[in-house]
Design a protein that fits this description.
Elements (H helix, E strand, L loop, with lengths): L2 H4 L9 H10 L1 H4 L3 H17 L1 E4 L7 H11 L18 E5 L3 E8 L5 E8 L1 E3 L5 E4 H6 L10 H12 L21 H29 L14 H14 L1 H7 L1 H11 L6
Parallel strand pairs: 1-2, 2-6
Antiparallel strand pairs: 3-4, 5-6
Length: 265
């Protein structure tokens, strides 16, 4: 979507002091290879050039806030072909000081409409803005062990939505993904790995919730659907890969092939 225009406006380089402060706070960024860190810096600068931040309820968007979001948001597309084009369906990012209350509406099998409120730390809308809680963005600097990262979660949803506007946990896959010859085969190959991983995770959460079993270390919000599991697993993949690989090695291998294709390394 007008991606060629971006090349006409070179983004200003992020100041060294601000960049180093961001890497120090969010250590999983600075611990990546030097070439990755430099590309993160460039993509973050482009992200800041192209997106518009808005503070909700009087929250003030400072350079620290915008850079923290940008540096983490670009991590999932660091090696994806097209880079920031994956995020070209929206401009606005709304930051709340803390969790927000969202009004939900669902229709049950009998046609009855139910409305309820849900407390959320973030939300990504199809072809719409991303909402984030600054409290939770900051928390990602210390919740690495739990694999929690609200920015990566919501931007993983944005990537997922590019696959057809549904939160189903399968992003658009490149031609020939895993040796397949059609988009249908590629989706089947993706779900052949994602679905059993999700089923295992969901069973763990049910056993923990209903029968006192040991709860999984990943956020149990991922048990709601394959779409939420994809986002939760992406959080862990980018901030605590080793622990995710110990539990879901096949899933990490799948993510490696998608997020870090060999020809893009």
């Amino acid at each position: 979507m007008f991606s060629w225009l971006r090349s006409l406006r070179a983004p200003p380089r992020i100041p060294d002091a601000a960049w180093q402060a961001t890497l120090a706070r969010y250590r999983f960024l600075g611990e990546r290879p030097a070439s990755d860190v430099e590309r993160l810096r460039q993509l973050a600068a482009e992200f800041l050039r192209d997106k518009r931040f808005h503070g909700a309820h009087g929250f003030v968007i400072t350079d620290e806030v915008a850079l923290a979001v940008a540096a983490q948001a670009v991590l999932p597309v660091l090696h994806l072909k097209g880079g920031l084009n994956w995020y070209d369906d929206f401009v606005g990012i709304v930051v709340h000081p803390s969790e927000a209350v969202a009004l939900r509406k669902t229709t049950d099998a009998t046609g009855v409409v139910h409305e309820y409120e849900e407390v959320v730390a973030g939300e990504a809308m199809d072809r719409g803005p991303v909402m984030l809680s600054w409290q939770d963005v900051l928390a990602s600097s210390v919740t690495r062990a739990e694999g929690y990262n609200v920015v990566i979660h919501e931007f993983a949803h944005k990537i997922d939505l590019r696959g057809g506007g549904a939160f189903d946990g399968c992003p658009p896959l490149p031609p020939g993904f895993r040796g397949t010859s059609s988009p249908r085969e590629a989706r089947a190959a993706w779900f052949a790995v994602l679905q059993p991983a999700y089923d295992t995770f969901r069973e763990q959460t049910i056993l923990a919730d209903r029968f006192g079993g040991e709860p999984p270390w990943l956020d149990d919000y991922g048990a709601q659907s394959t779409g939420e599991f994809f986002a939760v697993a992406c959080e862990a993949y980018f901030v605590n890969r080793a622990r995710l690989e110990a539990d879901f090695p096949a899933l990490v291998s799948l993510f490696d092939e998608f997020f870090t294709p060999i020809d893009n390394v």
